[in-house]
Design brief:
heterodimer; A: about 220 residues; mainly alpha; MetI-like fold; B: about 260 residues; six-stranded mixed beta sheet; four-stranded antiparallel beta sheet; globular; binds adenosine-5'-triphosphate; binds magnesium ion; nucleotide-binding (chain B); ATP-binding (chain B)
Chain lengths: ~220, ~260
């Protein structure tokens, strides 16, 4: 900690780095899980489908903060001890995957049945049809919603302050309690969150443009 | 053409199909021999599409049997009627090409990739060979100049010709056409019918559901008239379309005369 904001910048950037680290892991795991579980839900795999629905409901209908407390404070009682870092990415992954599952399920469901029928008529078995038709078409349609969720996950990494993980909010909070420069330091942290989210949004739009299929673009 | 005229490619026996309580097919018997072009006519809702979709098992059916090239469709041959299962259904579908009214090309794949999809993904043909054969098929339907375009960049008639090439790429034993010109502007219908005429002349076995009376008259070896889930009348187009034996077919023809 120092006299000016410039002196605090390295610490804040370090906190941002930690936020990005748990978010990147949490988002990646949750997206992969979301695609797999969303596909299973969309295919209506018996038993598994119902189990996934229960999972989604539990994680969607309880506060993230409570989920973090459960992971960090309740699990040790049954002998599972997670570090703040592990708690952070696992919480983001499990909470996010519930939403991503619904996002991808909706995306797969929105793929026109005619395209799927054409694939089946060519002799493509169900799994091939999913990989070559449903998945690529469904993913394109879900990029905006999945991005919004990913941004939400990154912002929610600030909740990890409660388990003492050294992410951006934790670092900013510590600096404030030592320097009392509340406005500057929280302002800087907010700006860092804002810019990162803006960058994620821009990258997502770039990705969408890159994947855009010629001939399906609506007139500007 | 070495058409061994007697062996049926498609054989439908006592086919019954219901959607819940609605019985749509009420005992269909149909044999299609190698190289034969069968045109199926009939009013809307008579079960023409449903019958085609049973032939490649895109629809289940309650009773009766279907074979394609001697292979049972959907259910084990014999008394037990056990479902064949995903893998074997897919195998049967490889031998049955189907072209839809709404083209149904894969929008995220180029024209040539659409045509290569079946051979590469299903038959595991090497990409280079699949591309070469695909280009030849596109040339055949007059679409080779658009090989690298996406479906969304093509007219309806062009998309439909690509869809035909995509089906042909699987080298099917029989091609099913379900009102493939019905979604097209009148001036685009001709280009698709021309491709189908060409296929018929080459000896492709075809079952064609259409409202194009001219096509039926000129190209069909046999016309089948369906109404209410049964085959009401069938015969050579020159005979039954000139002198329908049943009143139902007569009425249908007079309603569709202008086409
Ligand atoms: N998936 C379905 N569920 C319930 N009923 C269906 C379904 N598909 C078709 N039907 C019904 O089955 C009957 C036959 O339909 P089908 O599409 O085979 O007729 P069609 O002869 O092809 O008619 P068209 O000339 O209009 O295409 C119709 O009464 C239709 O409403
Ligand atoms: Mg129909």
């Amino acid at each position: 900690m120092g006299e000016t904001l410039l002196d605090d910048l390295p610490a804040l950037l370090n906190g941002l780095g930690n936020s990005l680290l748990v978010s990147a892991i949490g988002i990646t795991v949750s997206v992969v899980l979301g695609i797999a579980l969303g596909a299973a839900r969309n295919a209506g795999v018996p038993v598994l489908s119902q189990a996934i629905a229960v999972y989604v409901n539990v994680f969607r209908c309880t506060p993230l903060l409570v989920q973090i407390f459960m992971l960090y404070f309740a699990l040790p009682e049954i002998g599972i001890r997670l570090s703040p870092f592990q708690t952070s990415w696992i919480a983001l992954a499990l909470w996010g995957a519930a939403y991503h599952t619904e996002i991808f399920r909706a995306g797969f469901k929105a793929v026109p049945p005619a395209e799927i029928l054409a694939a089946r008529a060519l002799g493509m078995p169900a799994r091939r049809t999913f990989l070559d038709v449903t998945l690529p078409l469904g993913l394109r349609a879900t990029i905006p919603a999945a991005t919004t969720m990913a941004i939400g996950q990154f912002r929610s990494s600030s909740f990890m302050v409660v388990v003492g993980y050294q992410e951006l909010t934790y670092v900013a909070n510590g600096l404030v309690s030592q320097t009392f420069r509340v406005f500057e330091i929280f302002g800087m942290a907010a700006l860092m969150y804002f810019l990162t989210c803006t960058l994620i949004g821009a990258a997502s739009r770039g990705f969408e443009t890159w994947l855009r299929v010629p001939g399906t673009r609506t007139a500007r | 053409m070495t058409s061994t005229a007697s062996d049926p490619i498609v054989s439908v026996r006592k086919l019954h199909k219901s959607f819940d309580k609605l019985e749509v097919l009420k005992g269909i018997d149909l044999d299609v021999r190698r190289g034969e072009v069968v045109v199926v006519l009939g009013p809307s809702g008579s079960g023409k599409s449903t019958m085609l979709r049973c032939i490649n098992f895109l629809e289940t059916f309650q009773s009766g049997t279907i074979t394609v090239d001697g292979r049972p469709v959907g259910y084990e041959a014999g008394d037990h009627r056990r479902p064949l299962g995903e893998a074997r259904n897919a195998k049967v579908r490889e031998h049955v090409g189907m072209v839809f009214q709404s083209y149904n090309l894969f929008p995220h794949r180029t024209v040539i990739e659409n045509v290569m999809m079946g051979p590469v993904k299903v038959k595991k043909v090497a990409r280079a060979l699949a591309r070469e054969k695909g280009m030849a098929l596109l040339a055949k339907v007059g679409m080779d100049h658009k090989a690298d375009a996406y479906p969304g960049q093509l007219s309806g008639g062009q998309q439909q010709r690509v869809a035909i090439a995509r089906s042909l790429a699987m080298e099917p034993s029989v091609m099913l056409f379900d009102e493939v010109t019905s979604a097209l502007d009148p001036e685009l219908v001709g280009e698709v019918l021309k491709v189908m005429r060409g296929l018929a002349q080459e000896g492709m076995t075809m079952i064609v559901v259409t409202h194009e009376m001219g096509f039926a008259r000129q190209v069909a070896d046999r016309v089948v008239f369906m109404d209410g889930g049964v085959i009401v009348e069938e015969g050579a187009p020159g005979d039954i379309m000139a002198a329908p034996k049943t009143e139902r077919f007569g009425n249908f023809l007079s309603r569709n005369l202008d086409q």
